[in-house]
Amino acid sequence: MASMTTSKVTRWDQHGREHVVRVRKSGMQRQLTCGTCGWHKAAQFLPWLKAEEHLAEAHQATVDPTA
Ligand SMILES: [Zn+2]
After folding, report:
1. Residue 55 contacts by C-beta under 8 Å, 6 or more apart in sequence?
2. What superkingdom does the record give (predicted)?
3. Which domain holds residue 15?
4. Could you tell me the distance, in angstroms and rounded to a whole number, from the CA of residue 1 to the centre of ligand 1?
5. What is the structure's pLDDT at 26?
6. In 3D, which of 5, 19, 2, 4 has the Cα closest to residue 66?
7. Would you call 28 helix, strand, or coil by DSSP?
8. Residues with Cβ within 8 Å of residue 8, at least 6 apart in sequence
9. Contact call for residues 23 and 47 (beta carbons, < 8 A)
10. 11 alpha carbon to ligand 1 midpoint, in Å?
11. Would you say the pTM of this structure is higher than 0.70?
12. How far is the CA of 40 from the centre of ligand 1 (A)?
């Protein structure tokens, strides 16, 4: 599980490519930015979950290299 101090979410796709969504604190919200496609989103709750969802849906990247 991601900890509260995690500032990025990294997942690998089935080709072994790395995709990273950075999580930046912005006031009450977190700003998510995908390094692969430039997708970004503001999230107040569970930003890491939203980052994981984006990585899975947009990039089929579901492998957690830290798991
Ligand atoms: Zn993306």
Report:
1. 9, 11, 19, 21, 34, 61, 62
2. Bacteria
3. 4-59
4. 21
5. 87
6. 2
7. coil
8. 20, 21, 22, 23
9. yes
10. 11
11. yes
12. 8
